[in-house]
Amino acid sequence: MVAWLALLWGGLGSGASTAEVLRALPDWFIPVLGIDDLKDAFLQMPSAPWHAAFNNVATLNPFSRSWEFSEARCCLFGFRSVVRSFCRLPCLLTAVARRVCCVPATSFFDDFGALALAIHRQVPQAALGRILELAGSTPAEDKHRPMSPARVWLGAFVNLTTVPSDGMLRVSSKDGAVHKVV
């Protein structure tokens, strides 16, 4: 996208160097990232009432030493099949955002990210949020992070501030995370 914009804006040929492309970028070229997290993600998984017959959980009652069965009306955390069935929804919603709204969006389980330029303000992230709402998947208000050129996402610090100057997107560990590993 950076090279395409510079070629278009700066009138550069296809053989332009990275330095030429970066110099040709307009002043308003400031990439930003906004993130949202679904509220109670597994509880929002759409399911029909007749699905409950296929989503039973057996537990052993330690007092009566008998098996008890329950119907679950949501995805159950910890089951292998839930990951596969749950991830279908974020993949679909991300594809809709990309293809219908032209939003450079991504998802990782219930975390969604929207990339844009600062001049677009909050429009791409708002479009992604609207798609989530229309699908019945409400983003958590307390986990909404507005568009910013530097942001912590998925445990990493994503820095887009250097893209216009040297063409590099920098990803590093967030503050305080290294001591947990070392």
Question: Which short descriptors sum up this protein?
Answer:
6 helices; 182 residues; alpha+beta
What does the model show?
By secondary structure, this protein is α+β, with helices and mostly antiparallel strands. Helix content is 32%, strand content 25%. The protein has six helices and nine strands, in the order ααβββαββαβββαβα. The strands form three sheets. A four-stranded antiparallel sheet has the order 4-5-1-6. A hairpin with a 2-residue loop joins β7 (150-153) and β8. α1 (2-10) packs across α2 (18-24). The longest helix is centred in the middle third of the chain and has 22 residues, at 80-101. It is elongated and about 75 Å long.
- Gap between N and C termini, in Å? 37 Å
Shape: elongated
One letter per element, helices H and strands E, the order comes to: HHEEEHEEHEEEHEH
Strand content: 25-35%
| Strand adjacency order, main sheet | 4-5-1-6
CA gyration radius, whole angstroms = 22 Å
Low-confidence stretches: none
Summed up, what is this model?
With 182 residues, the chain is an alpha+beta fold. Helices cover 32% and strands 25% of the residues. It has 6 helices and 9 strands; from the N terminus they run ααβββαββαβββαβα.
Detail the topology: elements first, then pairings.
Blueprint: H1 2-10, H2 18-24, E1 31-37, E2 56-61, E3 66-71, H3 80-101, E4 105-108, E5 111-117, H4 123-134, E6 145-148, E7 150-153, E8 156-159, H5 163-166, E9 170-173, H6 178-181
Antiparallel strand pairs: 1-5, 1-6, 2-3, 4-5, 7-8, 8-9
Helix pairs in contact: 1-2, 3-4
